[in-house]
Amino acid sequence: MVSKLRLVFFVLLMIPQGVMFWMASNSLLQGNKFFSEIEAVSLASALILVLGMPGLTVEWLVGKHIRDMGKLCGRVKQGDYSELLSLPNESTNEEDTIMILKRDMNWMARQIEFRERDLRRVVKELQESRSQMQVMAMTDPLTSIANRRCFFDTLEKHFTALLCDCHPISLLLFDVDLFKKINDTYGHQAGDKVLLKLAEIIQENTRDSDLAARIGGEEYALLLPETHSQEAAGIASRIKNLIAGHDFILDGNQQISVTVSIGICTLFQRPCCFDKEKLYNFADQALYYSKHIGRNSVSIYNPDTDLISKFA
Q1: Less Cβ crowding at N or C end of the chain, within 10 Å?
Q2: Which CATH architecture has domain 148-310?
Q3: pLDDT digits (tens, 9 = 90+) for 103-114
Q4: Residue 2's pLDDT band (boundaries 50, 70, 90)?
Q5: Domain residue spans of the chain
């Protein structure tokens, strides 16, 4: 734009200069020393105007507008949409190009603001959905306690370090006695109520550091970090007695009694090559022993002697 203005100024200023030179060449002024000096000064002035006036003209006509638009772009980059370009209250058909451009830039800034707001809302919704899906992936849908996946992930990621630091870790496995008979006699909805209440009893008797999980149809697990064998046996015995003494209310105010068999294993000062399946298998053998000797009992697997004994 400045280059074009310079060309225009050059043409406009050189026309009178050329006319003056032409008129002087056919008069007595030709060869006059003072006139020659005036001609030189006039030509130099014209050249200075050609070089300087276009820039000044552009600055006067659009400089402030360009700076305002630059400031708007800077604010938009920073996410600040509070101040737009100042414009007349009403648009007219005779607006110049600068005003039209400023209106367009204000429109674009508002569109960016709206779309950024929508994008933030969508991102927030996606984050919330992701969090909900993560919780659902680790939660048993019936009882709302941890599921099998969460149980083994927690065992491997969080509790393995306990053994490496020579801290005990205990595992309790629960199995509902004769649960199939409950389903066959009272229906699956009644069985679900029993499972839900069992989860509540187990959960209510855990510490914040413990993890209660439903790992199968009628099987539950309880991980007890920093817990020795005798302490774990005491917790198992208390839960077993609470379940046996609880009246399970079914539809129609019908009451039934439910018992559980429990297997326990505690690992302590074992090598760091701890196998999560080993702890589970040892507790599962103790659970099988409890069911084999008559159910409604607590049995402990001793990993040092590979012997199983009844506790209660």
Answers
A1: N
A2: 2-Layer Sandwich (3.30)
A3: 888 888 888 889
A4: very low
A5: 2-80, 148-310
